[in-house]
Design brief:
Length: 314
C-alpha cells in the first residue's frame, strides 16, 4: 500500500497557551477525510504563560502531536526554524498559534501546490479583522521595509503557508543567525503561488509585537538582508559635500562683493552640530553592520532545544 503524504504543521507558541487545545482540534478536523497524514509540532518559545504543560498534555493524548521546548526565548522566526528542523513531513505548513489563520485550509493548500507544481503556497490575507489604524501601520511598516531592503515585503503576507520538502531543505541550508521566513523563501528562487484567505480575530491572548519589538525586527531584517543603508549613507554624504561646495562658492562671491561683513555666525555652530550628528548617525549604521558581523563570526548555536515530547523526552 502507498503511504499517505505526511504534512508537518509547525506552530511557534508564545503567549497563546489558551489557544493550543483549539488549535490541535482544528488541525485534527481539517485533515479528517483529506487523504493526508499529519503531525503537529508545537514549539514552546518560552512564553510568559508557560505553555509547556499544555503541549505535553496534548502530546500524551495524540502521538501525532509533538512538542519542542526551547531553552530560552529565541523569537518567532527562530522558533519556526526549530520546527522546520524537526519536521518529518513531505510538506511543511507554518501557522501561528493564535488561530487568526485557519489551519483547516492546509489540505486545500496542498491541492493548490500540486495543481500549480509549486514548492510553496503562500497565504495572502484577504479581509482583516484588526483596527484600521493597525492595518495602516502594518502597511507603512511593510513599505518602509521594502524600500530599505530592496525586497518586496507585503503586509498581507505573513508566515502562514505550505512548503515542499525541497523548499524546507533549501531553507535549512541558510546559516544566518537571524532569520525571516518570507524573505528567505523568496531568496530560494523556487516556484511559489498565492492563496487568498480572510483573516480571523485572535482566539485568545494579545499580540506580543509591540512598537519596540517591531522596530527591533525591522532593524534586524534591514541589516541582515540588505546593504542599502550603507549605500544611502554614501549618497547623503556626497549630497552634503556638494551642498557645502556650492555654499562655499556663494560665500566667496558674497565676500568679494562686500556683502559679507559679519565676522561670526550662529548658523556656523548649528551647522557643526547638525553635521556632527549626521556623522555619528552614519557611523551608527556602520556599527550595526559590524555588530552583525561580530555575531556571525562567534558561530554560536542559533537554536537551543531544552527538551521534546518525543520518546524519552515525554
Amino acid at each position: 500500500m502507498t503511504a499517505l503524504p505526511l504534512i508537518s504543521v509547525v506552530s511557534p507558541v508564545y503567549g497563546c497557551r489558551d489557544c493550543l487545545v483549539e488549535l490541535a482540534s482544528r488541525v485534527r478536523a481539517g485533515f479528517e477525510g483529506a487523504g493526508l497524514d499529519w503531525e503537529l509540532i508545537l514549539v514552546d518559545d518560552r512564553g510568559p504563560d508557560e505553555p509547556w504543560p499544555v503541549i505535553a498534555y496534548l502530546a500524551r493524548g495524540d502521538g501525532r502531536i509533538r512538542g519542542l521546548r526551547l531553552a530560552r526565548n529565541h523569537g518567532q522566526h527562530l522558533a519556526i526554524w526549530a520546527g522546520l528542523e524537526a519536521a518529518r513531513g513531505d510538506w511543511v505548513a507554518v501557522v501561528d498559534c493564535d488561530l487568526q489563520d485557519d489551519p483547516g485550509v492546509i489540505p486545500a493548500l496542498h491541492a493548490r501546490a500540486l495543481a500549480a507544481e509549486a514548492d510553496a503556497v503562500i497565504v495572502e490575507r484577504g479581509t482583516w479583522h484588526d483596527t484600521r489604524l493597525r492595518r495602516m501601520a502594518s502597511r507603512a511598516y511593510s513599505r518602509t521595509l521594502s524600500w530599505l531592503t530592496g525586497f518586496r515585503i507585503d503586509n498581507n503576507i505573513g508566515n502562514f503557508g505550505l512548503y515542499s520538502r525541497r523548499m524546507v531543505d533549501v531553507l535549512l541550508q541558510f546559516r544566518d543567525k537571524e532569520v525571516f521566513l518570507p524573505v528567505m523563501v523568496s531568496l530560494t528562487g523556487l516556484p511559489r503561488v498565492l492563496f487568498t484567505l480572510d483573516r480571523s480575530g485572535r482566539h485568545a491572548g494579545e499580540s506580543s509585537y509591540n512598537l519596540l519589538r517591531l522596530v527591533r525586527m525591522a532593524v534586524a531584517i534591514i541589516i541582515r538582508f540588505s546593504d542599502r543603508p550603507l549605500k544611502l549613507s554614501v549618497i547623503v554624504g556626497l549630497a552634503f559635500s556638494g551642498f557645502a561646495a556650492l555654499f562655499s562658492v556663494l560665500l566667496v562671491v558674497a565676500w568679494a562683493t562686500g556683502a559679507f561683513t559679519v565676522p561670526g555666525w550662529t548658523s556656523i555652530i548649528l551647522s557643526v552640530w547638525f553635521l556632527s550628528g549626521l556623522i555619528l548617525a552614519v557611523l551608527g549604521i556602520h556599527g550595526f553592520y559590524v555588530g552583525r558581523i561580530f555575531r556571525e563570526v562567534q558561530d554560536r548555536p542559533r537554536i537551543i532545544v531544552e527538551c521534546t515530547t518525543d520518546a524519552a523526552g515525554r
